[in-house]
Amino acid sequence: MPEVVFPLSSAPGARPQESGGRLINAFVEVAPEGAPSNAIWRRTPGLFRLAETLGHSHTRGFLNIGSAVLWILDGRVYSISSAFALTNVGALAGSLPVTVARNNNATPQNVVVTENGCFNLFAASAPTSFADVDLPASPTSVSFLNGYFLWTFGDGRIFASDLNSVSVASNSFHTEQGLFIRRGFVFAGRFYAFGDKWTAVFRDAGTSPFPLAKEVVIPRGIIGTWAIAGDEVGWANTPIFVGDDHIVYRLDGYTPIPISTEDVSRDIRAAAIAEEGSLLEASTYMYGGHAMWTLTYPGNWTWEYNLTTKRWHEKKSYGRDDWRARRSIRAFDRWLVGDDATGRLFEINGEYFLEDIDALIWHVESGSVSAFPNGIVIPRASFNMTAGVGAFPLVGDPNPVDPTPQVSISWSLDGGHTFGIPLLRPLGGPGESKWYPQVLSCGLSRGQGLRFKLRVSDPVHVALHSGVVDAENRGP
Question: Is the peptide bond before 209 cis (omega within 30 degrees of 0)?
């Protein structure tokens, strides 16, 4: 029987009939030897709520300060304890993402750059404006290397603080002529000044008054300040960024390696054409052995790159076109993210099959089953999915698992242009491992071929192994 081909990377195509298949809230994992197939299509991890503030919303950034984490939302800073108790630290105007840094002073000093300028952050008191008048107004970012705070500016200047201090000498700067520096980034003992046209890389030379020396120039810029991630503690330590040419790159030493597919780059180009490429936000997290790098165009889409498998999939939260999570940090032995629209703090949790209390819909679309130019009749289509995933509800569980979960199956007879009304098929209740979903009498496809769409909204374990069809050729 012909196999139904499911994609390893999501590939929606410029038009549905050009698609190679889609993965939304689903990703591919290499199956172990002896498994029913070579690949398993799993559900992406859920978002488990750890804390909430009702007074403020929209996460802009995090900073780990040792015993606590500073959580920056619209107009406010909170402190998060290891027990996930929240303390309102004070006001910080703004609504855009931030960059943060912390030095090695005996009493470490914390700095944040927002769209309104540079500010000092404190563990238990309100932020204050950065006081040193030798630091120009309106930096684009702040970072930290070997005892020095480093600020970048749109006019190409990079300012350095004194060693483990918030003091800045008026002549402690370097200028990259003709470069609008969008983001400073520290990785592997080097400082990267990502600009609109190129990226300058510096090492700590111990010189005075400016302590850095330029080492190399990478002939590739960045699309926006927040379109890079990969230096986070606990991640895979591989910087990934969106270039000024709308391609996603992984840094291999000083060489940018392109990793985006045409589908990903097409969406990035559309954001740039709308003059909103600067809004792209990247973040990271780990899930089991999978290193995930996420890129969001707020309100429009989210793509996620699995560095472990080198594959792409899409993410969509319930009722949205993008993923609701914003920013990320590894703290208290968990990966934490904030919410876009509320003041909720989440843990990335692979054993929690919801996003907060909303459905996390696993969505897989197949490639085309075709005998072009002939049509094909499909008397039956069968799908090998892990069965018996339902569970008896626990007493008092606010989000009980449905003991009879189902998969929704629909199909297209015109290559993906239109899909029919979905049918529900059981995935098996507790101990019911005999189930496998199938649909009968799928009809006669046209020359463009047949495609299947599988969706699971029940909060249960989901794993797809393969699909097959009984196929009979017919004339065009």
Answer: yes
Residue 325: CB atoms within 10 Å: 24
Give the torsion sign (CA, 272, 150, 138, 199). negative
- The pLDDT, as a whole number, for residue 284 is 98
Q: What is the largest CA-CA distance in the chain?
A: 80
Instruction: Pick the more confident residue, 378 or 459.
Output: 459
Contact 291, 232 (CB under 8 A): no
Tokens 């999570």 map to which residue? Answer: 325
The b-or-e profile of 183-202 (16+ CB within 10 A means b, else e) is: bbbbbeebbbbbbeebbbbb
Q: How far apart are CA 267 and CA 188, in angstroms?
A: 31
Residue type, 125: S
Rg of the chain on CA atoms, in Å? 25
Phi then psi for residue 464, to 5 deg, are -105, 130
Q: What pLDDT score does 401 carry? A: 65
What six digits make up the tokens of 130? 């950065």
Q: Residue 264 is inside which H or E element, if any?
A: helix 262-273
Residue 87 DSSP SS3 = strand
Query: CA–CA separation, 93 vs 179, rounded Å?
Result: 28
**Cα 8 from Cα 374, distance rounded (Å):** 27
pTM over 0.90: yes
Q: Is pLDDT larger for residue 257 or for residue 389?
A: 257
- Hey, is 277 helix, strand or coil? helix
Hey, is 272 helix, strand or coil? helix
Q: What percent of the chain has a predicted confidence (pLDDT) above 70?
A: 97
Instruction: Provide the Cα torsion 81, 86, 87, 89; round to 10°.
Output: 90
Handedness of CA 162, 164, 165, 166 (dihedral sign): positive
Are the C-beta atoms of residues 224 and 244 closer than 8 Å to each other? no
pLDDT at position 397 over 90: no
